Amino acid sequence: MSLSDRLARQQALAPAPVRPESPGPQHRSARHRLSDRPAPPRALAPKQMRAPALATELPDMPSRAARNADPFAEVKRSVHAALLDVLGPKLYDARLEQRELEQQVTQTLQEVLQRDETPLTVVDRSRIAQEVADEILGHGPLEPYLRDPGVSEIMVNGHDQIYVERSGRLHPVPAVFADESHLRRTIDKIVARVGRRVDEASPMVDARLPDGSRVNAVVPPVALDGSLLTIRKFAADPFTLDDLIGFGTVTPPVAEFLMACVRGRLNIVIGGGTGSGKTTTLNVLSSFVPDDERIVTIEDAAELQLRQEHVIRLESRPPSLENRGEIRIRDLLRNALRMRPDRIIIGEVRDGAALDMLQAMNTGHDGSITTTHSNSPRDSLSRIETMVLMAEVDLPQRAIREQMASGIDLIIHQSRLKDGSRRITHITSVEGMETDIITLLDVFLFDFHAGLDEHGRHRGVLRSTGLRPRFVDTLADRGVALPAEIFASEGFGK
Predict the structure, then answer these.
(1) What DSSP element (H or E) covers 127?
(2) Distance between CA atoms of 35 and 343, rounded to whole angstroms?
């Protein structure tokens, strides 16, 4: 008998393996159901071999919430609850002035902390008192950064991640919200003060703080990983022209030139990217408007800080839950023309209101100022042209460009540079039309050829190109003279 025949005979005589009876579906445990799944590939280690390695790796990768855990969270929660029990409805008494309310909260906080039996150091006790007071009277964990004059912007990327901007640079901070509901309560407190709302039906909102700081909030379902909050702070004491000179945003000759342009009632467009300082420059330019003129400001969220006596402030309004009652910038601009304005200042033009703005500039309302998002002076004109088309008025391209060439006198372009500084990089005159092209003349340009210093900051400043804009004669006719040396060439680009 051959070897193959003997192997076949042994297999035939071997007893069949006994298989355990499989339980019915209704009696299968989770363990049996898991065992029915296909086995993992051989390349993977067995389950019992992988578990210990995973257990040793997890402690080395704590979550963001674990890293920012507050050791005094429970104490603050109990102190907060006790404070609410003591003060009760006084916190919402409209007859109480803010200073009186702050005094009562501070006094009651100290009494509650003295009764608390948790052993705390003086520093910890003071910190808890401040944080609870910030939660009740202010905006919780954001309040220290709102008070910090060195912080220009606050960005909340979910309840457990906050960034701030200092000197044009972003930095993470250890502050966190307790959870998503804590962040939502803070957002609701901010937007309720200005009569706005944010919810699933209207998940995005623009608002402002009492000091004029700009607020944007986005909540789920639009924000996939939790609510988002961005606050662009405004200085309690508005920046002046001397501040812009000190920052390097402008030079003294340029400041004199811009002052003459505003007093000479030129129509000015300020362009630039997000966070480039357009609104700050607009605030400074508006300070040159004479006190005897009537100024009407139009904004999405009121943030301009004008110091003149005769200022009328208008603010747009979003639609209600029933999609009624919306008041757009365009509606406000049309109404402003009936209010006998000497100057119309628009915080930002971003839609069909551009057409009404051009019409106002071309119908005797000289001296208007507005801002727009753009990459260059030429792009500012292109964007305005596009926004005019959004007004759903069938105008030929040449008619729109003639309106722009006639109505806009000066374009100021501002940029946030790589070193974090905000600089005016172009001051450009609108000279007129040649065929279908609007002709522009750069009067001042930022000198990028100067390079960087040892700290990575730009050495360059705004320099005159040596060219004299057409509107100088217009300024002279209005009694505003400009020294000829302002336009003297400074060896630009060398």
Answers:
(1) helix 122-137
(2) 79
What is the three-class DSSP state of 112?
helix
Query: What is d(CA 407, CA 384) in angstroms, rounded to the nearest whole number?
Result: 12
> The domain 138-235: what is its CATH number?
3.30.450.370
What 3-state DSSP class applies to 89? helix
Q: What is the pLDDT of residues 14-41, one digit of tens each?
A: 554 444 444 444 444 444 444 444 444 4
Q: How far, in Å, are 139, 149, 169, 468 from residue 163 at the CA level?
A: 16, 15, 10, 45
Q: Rounded to whole angstroms, how far apart are CA atoms 19 and 15?
A: 12
- Alpha-carbon span 355 to 361, nearest angstrom: 10
Predicted confidence pLDDT, tens digits, the chain (494 residues): 554 555 455 555 555 444 444 444 444 444 444 444 444 444 444 334 333 333 333 344 344 554 455 656 666 666 666 666 666 665 555 555 666 666 666 766 666 666 666 666 667 667 766 666 667 677 888 988 988 888 989 999 999 999 999 988 899 998 888 889 889 988 988 888 877 888 888 899 888 887 778 899 999 999 998 999 999 987 767 788 888 898 888 899 999 999 999 999 999 999 999 888 898 899 899 999 998 999 999 988 777 888 888 999 998 888 877 778 889 898 999 899 899 999 999 988 888 889 999 988 988 888 999 999 999 999 999 999 999 999 888 889 999 999 999 999 999 999 988 888 889 999 999 999 998 899 999 999 998 888 788 877 888 889 999 899 999 999 999 999 888 888 886 655 44
What residues contact residue 193 under an 8 Å CB cut-off, 6+ apart? 207, 210
Apex CA 432: angle with CA 428 and CA 433, to 5°?
125
Instruction: Give the amino acid at 486.
Output: I
Ramachandran category for residue 387: left, alpha or beta (phi over 0 → left; psi -120 to 50 → alpha): alpha
Instruction: State residue 73 phi and psi, 5-degree precision.
Output: -60, -45
Strand pairing category for 410-416 and 369-373: unpaired
| Topology at the third CATH level for domain 241-487 | Rossmann fold (3.40.50)
Please report, for the chain, the start and end positions of each structural domain, with discontinuous segments joined by +.
Answer: 67-136, 138-235, 241-487
Which amino acid appears at position 108 of this protein? T
- Pairing assessment for the beta strands 268-272 and 410-416 based on DSSP bridges: parallel
Cβ proximity of 471 and 409 under 8 Å = yes
Distance CA 314, CA 47 (A): 67
Q: Residue 248 and residue 130: Cα distance in Å, rounded?
A: 37
Contact 373, 386 (CB under 8 A): no
Q: Report d(CA 133, CA 239) in Å as an integer.
A: 30
